[in-house]
Request: fold
Amino acid sequence: MIAPGSRLLALALVGALVVAACGSSDDGAGGTTTTTDAASPSTTAAAASEPVTVAELFDPDALAAEVTEVDCTLENGSTTSCHRLVVASIPGTVDPGPFCPPTVDSDEGGIFTWDGDDPGLYALDASFWSLMDQQGYSFADADGSLHIADPADAAPGQDSCLEATPDDSYTLAVLLPTAPEDLDEPTDLGTVSQVGLALDGVTIFGDAPSGTSGAIPALDPCGGHVDPSGYYHWHFGATSIQSNLDAAGVPRECGEPQDEDAIFGVAFDGYAIYGPHHDGTDPTDLDECSGHVATTAELGEVYHYHLTDQSPNLPSCRVGATAQDKLSSPDNDAVSLPDTGGPGGAGGAPPGGPPAP
Ligand SMILES: [Zn+2]
Ligand SMILES: [Zn+2]
Reply:
């Protein structure tokens, strides 16, 4: 176990090194001063605004606005600074779907982590619907067509494959602490809890809602789907999900580039989330949250999480404090964002799940 202070020290040191390397500085008054360095290809627009930390690792195409540094209050009461990232409700960096197949025999469908009898990761294909039949569910008509419903108007009592309507017309704002602060106890990342933001601009949530109610909020083969309020989000680490699919014998291909070592995103406590491998192998020193302190290519020696070989493959807890209003929408008061005090947060429906009663 590494003392929390060690993580902060490591992060601070890395930050100092990156500042030196980039030749940039923030004047602290909202403006940014960037020295001219024609030889440095890393001096991008995103890097110029926040030259120091995880914020500059995000795909520039995923960001709907320039990254800013803002005052924020963490859940432990600490007042500090946060990176503020704004992303589209459906970033152009991803290609969502397919979700629910049109018929029980179709191979044009996504996946689901079934948590009823015979739990596991399944393709939404003929064998899965047959399993559902055996368990007493009825997802199809006699002609084999599947009951597909928008969660906004799914009929109660009707076994349905849920597929929400995308809405790309608004943005989401994410706060990530610039200097992570550890809590005394890890925070469980259970069902539909907020995990973080992927480098492709897509929010990451904990386990998808249970399917045992007879309503299956389908995921696409990369582990994402559309919330009832229209935004796309991940329930898996998409950059290594193919190994999970293959291990489970699921005949689906995720179109996202796969890299077991690559950084996938940043947790809401500010720590990075990498693929399941560290330097090409499974790390052996992970804590209960699937994290450890080790040297990374991007951030130096810092605490970071790893995706797992479980399904879903996300860390099951987080060690650090998240910002109040860590996820909100600047331009859509109606969006459902559970686990937050942000707009639409109170009583919002779980992502991808049926609407709140
Ligand atoms: Zn590692
Ligand atoms: Zn969801």
